[in-house]
Amino acid sequence: MKPLLRRGRYRVVLAAAASSLALAGAALVVPTLAQAASTLGAAAAQSGRYFGTAIAANRLNDSTYSTIAAREFNMITAENEMKPDATQPQRGQFNFNSGDQIYNWATQRGLKVRGHTLAWHAQQPGWMQSLSGSTLRQAMIDHINGVMAHYKGKLAAWDVVNEAFNEDGSRRNSNLQGTGNDWIEVAFRTARAADPSTKLCYNDYNIENWSYGKTQGVYRMIQDFKSRGVPIDCVGLQTHFTGGSSLPSNFQTTLSSFAALGVDVALTEVDVTNASTSQYQGLTQACLNVPRCIGITVWGVRDSDSWRSNENPLLFDGGGNKKAAYTSVLNALNAAGPGPTTSPTTSPTATPTTSPTTPPPAGGANRIVGSQSGRCIDVPNSSQTNGTRVQLYDCHGNTNQQWTYTASRQLTVYGGSRCLDAAGSGNSAAIQIYACNGQTNQQWNVNSNGTVTGVQSGRCLDVWGTGNGQQVQLYDCNGQANQQFRLVPIS
Ligand code: XIL
């Protein structure tokens, strides 16, 4: 994984874009970045982060629940539906019905999805619980391969291994541990091979306090994995400040210490007894203070949805009203605004996005090929309808994949009748086709570093997966492979 550089470079790009626009005297709407956002997801996106929730499939037809979830959050975790007992109830028979229900609900609303979880001592199907030794080892590998194949190219991250440590920092004595101490690295290597496009996380609870034995045990494992090249991209800190635990004063030290090993960190299952505003505010601020803390997920929508509902630990009450803790989180996210709160410690691997290359000669048709996926930017069903979102699809060179870069920096399709168009300028704004109108949300810089940036937004064309049907969006440029595109002339 290349280091994340979102926020540092973003400022430079935007400043450059804004000043060149001012020079050109164009009448434009430059996004007011200092404006407070009114939802958790939008507030987090200002600093390139996400704000997520766990979703239960059987609650989705509760309209209060789904309305809040779709409005406030931009990352979704299946609370139980992608766990081993749900996805492989009988050996060799996979079932993705409820997992897909959540995946489809989320992606139809433009929300991203984290996968949870592949290898865990709990919520195993009965047949797996009774296995041991090499049979169980093989079953774990088969399970990872089966589930990851189904979701290949679709998920932002997977919690590959969940809760493998004891409180004292030793390994938990589970049936998986009984297959040999290398089971965790085998799981990660299997996962990388199964889907190279998704981030691979280790996830656990009670690893928030830097001086705690379990935190140190997990830290040493991540350090060992990074030193030996075992593929791992992220650590998920569940952050259940429930059942007696609370926010430690050294939480930020824990986050930055993990991050310094070269992994992203995320708070993956947050809930806090009685939704203490100071603890919610503090855990949010700790994440905001660490550049590689990429997002926060709360473990449910309303208190009544929580697995610990008697502790009222979430941001919405049973009636769907925002609690005081909601406001403390929203305010903290808004106060962080667009800039980094600390400078990224990693050095850039991609050059700034402000210098366009000499574009391909105007008039020729090109494919726009995603470097990570090898797939082409495609207008679904050859639609000519204004507002149709473009996607990745297998390259075939038909007219719905033929793009012409014009002298005025438009990317036109269908012989010039439609333009590649950004339906907004913020993170996650849809990329669509629209009748060409000469405005800056239809102008693109094709950059020498392989990115394509919107003239209005300064943001990069971005996809969150590699599969057919993956939608294209705007996102803060981060130097990663999912933002690399090549214009390849169609001869
Ligand atoms: C919990 C769910 O919220 C419950 O609905 C289920 O009965 C048990 O699992 N750590 C994890 C989560 O990684 O998967 C757990 O979710 C909570 C603790």
Could you characterize the architecture of this molecule?
The chain is an alpha/beta fold and 491 residues long. It is built from 12 helices and 21 strands. The strands form 5 sheets. The protein has an 8-stranded parallel beta barrel with strand order 1-2-3-4-5-6-8-9, surrounded by 5 helices. Strands 16-15-14-13-10-21 form a 6-stranded antiparallel beta sheet, with no helix packed on it. Strand 15 and strand 16 form a beta hairpin. The chain is globular, with a radius of gyration of 23 Å. Bound molecules: (3S,4R)-3-hydroxy-2-oxopiperidin-4-yl beta-D-xylopyranoside (XIL).
Map the helices and strands.
Blueprint lengths: L5 H19 L15 H6 L4 E6 L7 H10 L2 E4 L5 H4 L9 H12 L3 E9 L5 H4 L3 H18 L6 E6 L20 H12 L4 E6 L8 H16 L5 E4 L2 E2 L9 H9 L4 E9 L4 H12 L4 E6 L25 H13 L28 E6 L5 E3 L12 E3 L9 E3 L5 E3 L4 E5 L8 E5 L8 E3 L5 E3 L5 E3 L10 E3 L9 E5 L2
Parallel strand pairs: 1-2, 1-9, 2-3, 3-4, 4-5, 5-6, 6-8, 7-8, 8-9
Antiparallel strand pairs: 10-13, 10-21, 11-12, 13-14, 14-15, 15-16, 17-18, 19-20
Helix pairs in contact: 7-8, 11-12
Bound molecules: (3S,4R)-3-hydroxy-2-oxopiperidin-4-yl beta-D-xylopyranoside.
Uncertain stretches: 1-33, 339-359
Shape: globular
What is the spatial order of strands in the main beta sheet? 1-2-3-4-5-6-8-9
| Cα separation of the termini | 34 Å
Q: What is the rounded Rg? A: 23 Å
Percent of residues in β-strands: 15-25%
Bound molecules: (3S,4R)-3-hydroxy-2-oxopiperidin-4-yl beta-D-xylopyranoside
Helix content: 25-40%
Number of helices: 12
Mean pLDDT: 88
Report the major sheet.
Answer: 8 strands, parallel, barrel
Global structural class: alpha/beta
Number of strands: 21
